[in-house]
Amino acid sequence: MDDPARPVATAPKLRLSSLPRRADQPFRLEPDADTRAALAQELGLSSLRKLRLEGRLSPEDRDDWRLEAMLGATVVQPCVATLAPVTTRIDLPVERLYTADPPPLPAGDEVEVPEDDHVEELPAVLDLAALMAEELALALPAYPRAEGAAPVEEISTPPGAAPIEEEEETKPFAGLAALRDKIAKDDE
Predict the structure, then answer these.
(1) Where are the domains of the chain?
(2) Contact yes or no for 78/86 (Cβ under 8 A)
(3) Are the beta carbons of 155 and 62 closer than 8 angstroms?
(4) Could you tell me if 30 and 52 are in contact, meaning their C-beta atoms sit under 8 angstroms apart?
(5) How far apart are the first and last CA of the chain?
(6) What's 21's DSSP letter?
C-alpha cells in the first residue's frame, strides 16, 4: 500500500476537500501507548497492546472518496467465565465509500439495514481515529473465553423456590396435565 515516493498521512483528521484528487492518498494511524490505554478503558478492555489502521483514500467520481484499509489490533479482555485474560488478534479489512449523494434512508419505525452498509455521506473532515475506534469496537469478541474454561451454568430462581430441573417442568401445559390427572383421580 505504501509508495516510498509519497509521504504517508499520519494525521487522525483529514479535510477531504483539501486533499489532491489526482492520486490515492495513503495513510497510517498508530496510536501511542497513552491513546491505546484510554481507548482500552473506553471499550472495557484489560489492555490494547497494538493498534494500527493503514490504507488509502482513492478519489472516485467527481466528489466521492473510497477508503480501503486494514485494521490490526491485539486486545486483551477478561474471560466471561473465569475473568482470566484472553488475548485476541484482530486483522480486519475496512471499506467505506464516502459520497456526496448517499442513498436515502428508509422511513418508518422499523426499517431494515441496507445490505451495502459501507456507503456513508461525505464528511467535511474524515476522523480516522474515530473510524478506527468504531471498527475495533465492532470487531471485539462479545464473549471472550479462556482456553479450557468450563461452561458456566447459571440457575436463577425466586427465593424459596426449587429450580426447574426436568424438561417436563418447562412445558407450558405440564401444570394443566397434572390438574387434569388430579381431577380424574378425585372423580373415581
Answers:
(1) 13-103+113-139
(2) yes
(3) no
(4) yes
(5) 86
(6) S
The candidate with the shortest Cα–Cα distance to 73, out of 15, 113, 132, 118, is 132
Q: Is residue 71 within 8 Å of residue 135, measured between CB atoms?
A: yes
Q: Is 167 exposed, middle or buried (0-12, 13-18, 19+ CB in 10 A)?
A: exposed
Give dist(CA 46, CA 59) in Å, integer.
38
Average of per-residue pLDDT values in the chain: 83
Three cell numbers, residue 82 = 473465569
- CB burial of 18-35 (b: ≥16 within 10 Å; e: otherwise) equals eeeeeeebbbbbebeeeb
115 within 8 A of 81, measured Cβ to Cβ: no
Contact by Cβ (8 Å): 64, 32: no
Indicate the pTM of the whole model: 0.71
Q: What is the mean pLDDT of residues 153-157?
A: 75
